[in-house]
Amino acid sequence: MNRDDVYPCMTECAAEAARIARGVAPRQLDAPTSCGEWDVRALANHWILYTSHGLEHRARRIPLPEELTRQDFTADPAWADAYAGQLDRAVAAWADPQVWEGDIDLGFMTMPAVEIASLIVKELAVHGWDMATATGQELRVSDATARLVLDVVEAHAEVYRQYDGFVAPVTLPDDAPAFERALALSGRDPRRAEASAAGH
């Protein structure tokens, strides 16, 4: 996995995340999500923090400021536009090929930059699906992105489960599409999206 594999998927997922965020109605912020006890507001704050601010800070090799980790981004009525703008800045920061070289210090461990980037692409896509499903929308990803997200989930699922980031996997047919298999391996039921769409 290298920049040429990951960067197009990052760009694609960032655009999808911005589109989905703009489709969230204010009345939906208190709605439940597939992420345990998180409502849409809590999911949005996590999503915004790590996939836009976190994405840019990782590229620049600087820690997230403490005040950002406590911020309710959704308190701003224009939060979705602000998120889209921050995503643009983050993706631009990763446009520099040198950013992809070497390791990134996370404070508690270091990881290769390309691996950090792939993990955040997974966050963009999987939490993008969570947000879309909770708000009656649909996440659209290319085959290449679906495959990359599946590879990341397969590589890291057990570590995520150890820290309660994922729950038990959901069983799907062997011929299920790659992105559905990634969702299922992370403990999400892709059939929930169909039920959600039918209910809106």
UniProtKB/TrEMBL annotation:
GO terms for molecular function: metal ion binding. Residues 12-132 form the Mycothiol-dependent maleylpyruvate isomerase metal-binding domain. InterPro entries: CHP03086, DinB/YfiT-like, Maleyloyr_isom, MDMPI_metal-binding. This is TIGR03086 family protein.
